[in-house]
Structures are given as structure tokens and as C-alpha cells.
Design brief:
The chain is mainly alpha-helical and 186 residues long. It has a single domain, classed as Hypothetical protein af1432, CATH 1.10.3210. It is 56% helix and 0% strand. It has nine helices and no strands.
Length: 186
Amino acid sequence: MQKTREEAEKLLKKYIKNDKMLAHSYASEAVLKALAIRLKTDDISWSIAGLLHDLDVEITNANPKVHGLEAAKILKEYHYDDEMIDAIKMHNEEAHGLKRNKMFHFALAAGETITGLIMATALVYPDKKIENVKVKSVTKRMKEKAFAASVNRKTIMECEKLGLTLDEFVDISLTAMKEISIKIGL
């Protein structure tokens, strides 16, 4: 039985208290839904995976050795779909040493990662509004390794494994995030 978005958000708020992490989760949800629609796949599962992918980040203190694995355990207890749990676990390859090998894996990893670069780009604008961010600004910042240095550019480039160019991927992601700008505080 497929879980509803409302059930997923309730679970998210049970485990995530930090407003910035909630904003990241909502942004990831929007990006994953837009990617699923573009790629003609299950937008409900993909968007819920985006919403819940960092479910364990506060429990694990974002420790890359275990982040994702705890989320998988929690989601299994709540009877979430195995494919979704697998994608969530795979968004952090460091925790288990396995390599992403499915579209869902690549989409979640690249999609949740691009949100950080887009948010950082918006925050350097004078008005700090995502509505004014352009695709070209994000792709330019992508080349600046010192800008948002913790954002893994290699992971973002996994968008190519989805058949998308970086410009297409940024456009899809940015458009999705602009649609929820108020919710994410940008």
C-alpha cells in the first residue's frame, strides 16, 4: 500500500526539527517530483523519497558512515516501499560502499544535492529570492569550487545518467523550487 504525502510529512516532522533541514526536504521533494514527471515515472514515490531522504540526519548528526541506513530502518518499520527505501539508502554511498545503479538512485542523489547549490546561489542575491535566480547563475556557480564547497558537483553531474544535460537539470530543479519559494523561505 502506497503511503500518502501527508503521512510522509507527519513522519518527517517527527524526526526533523531544524527549519533549514525541513526547507531542504521540501525543496528535494519538489525537485524529485518534477524529475519524475519529466522522466515519466512514479512522481508520488519519487517526491516522497525527496521529502524523506534525510529523515535520519538529526539522529545520526549527518555522519556519512551511517546517514541513510538509519532512515532505511525507520522507513521499513513504517512499511514504506522497498524501492523508495533503497533509493534513500543509496543517496549516501559512503554509508554502505555500494554504487548507485538505478534511475531512482541517480535522481535522488543529484536532485537533493542540486537544492543546496540553488539555495546558496539565491542567498548571494541582494534580495535572497529564488525567483530571481537564473539557470546560468547556478551553472556558473557550479564551476566555482569554493562556492558552496560542501555541495558535491560530481553527484550533481549524475543528472547525465538520467539523460539530462546540466542546463536541463538545473532548469527543472530551479523551476520546481521557485514554485514552493514561500514554503522554503526563499
